Amino acid sequence: MDVQQSFGLAHLWAQSDLAIRLVAFALVLMSVTSWYLILVRVVRQFQARRHDRAVEAFWAAPDLEDGLDRLRTLAPDSPFEALARQGAAAADHVRQHTYQQSLGGKLDTDEFVTRALRKSIALSTAQLESGLTMLASIGSTAPFIGLFGTVWGIYHALVNISVSGMATLDKVAGPVGEALIMTAFGLFVAIPAVLAYNAISRANRLELSELDAFAHDLHAWFTTGSRLAAQPDAGAAREARGAKNSVSLRPSAGAA
């Protein structure tokens, strides 16, 4: 019993030096941060399941105001609500300033609505990608931080052996245990972060694809007064429509 207690985690922590404790503290902080980001995104994904229903309710509304109210009720503070509100505000601005001799009045409805939708998509993209950089950094650096703890633990063991002059188990087991724990802890932190990064990135791509399709429908409705109807060759039609409008609707690196 005494031997098992002497080689427990409490003993390893008590006999470790400052470097090992800093490595352990850094890994704990990274683990807490990654799990916080993961839980936040899980909650958001449950909320995002209502977006499809909210979009269908929007198009089923008798008028624009009622549609915006439905989006506000079913998907509050969502990228879809923000996109519809930005498009409606842009279209209303154009109607109010069509006959005014100003810079705003010189823009046609298509161009002005397009800019508003692009801006909304860019802001939503930035919001969806928040936290991904942190997860990627944790997933890529945690194993190396754990490896540093491993190297330092082995170095600590060698120093103890050289000082004592005897390679006994009680002189080596503690530092070697520290090294193994730091390696395992680094992997424990990195693996969930990497898996979560991949899952969140895929979910973001799907949501941005749906948001882009909603933006094209909104653009058609605000500029022509009708939503694009689904056709048998909807995939080809959407591809052609995307080729025509992707430069104007989807944010690009050179977009203002």
Estimate the strand proportion: under 5%
Instruction: Specify the biggest β-sheet.
Output: none
> How do the helices and strands follow one another from N- to C-terminus?
HHHHHHHHHH
**CA distance, first residue to last residue:** 69 Å
Helix content: over 70%
Mean of residue pLDDT values: 77
Tally of helical runs: 10
Give Rg in angstroms. 28 Å
Number of strands: 0
Which class of secondary structure composition applies to the elements? mainly alpha
The best one-word shape is: rod-shaped
Q: Which blocks of ≥5 consecutive residues have pLDDT under 50? A: 1-5, 231-248
GO cellular component, one term: plasma membrane
Subunit structure: The accessory proteins ExbB and ExbD seem to form a complex with TonB.
Keywords: Cell inner membrane, Cell membrane, Membrane, Protein transport, Transmembrane, Transmembrane helix, Transport
Membrane topology: Multi-pass membrane protein
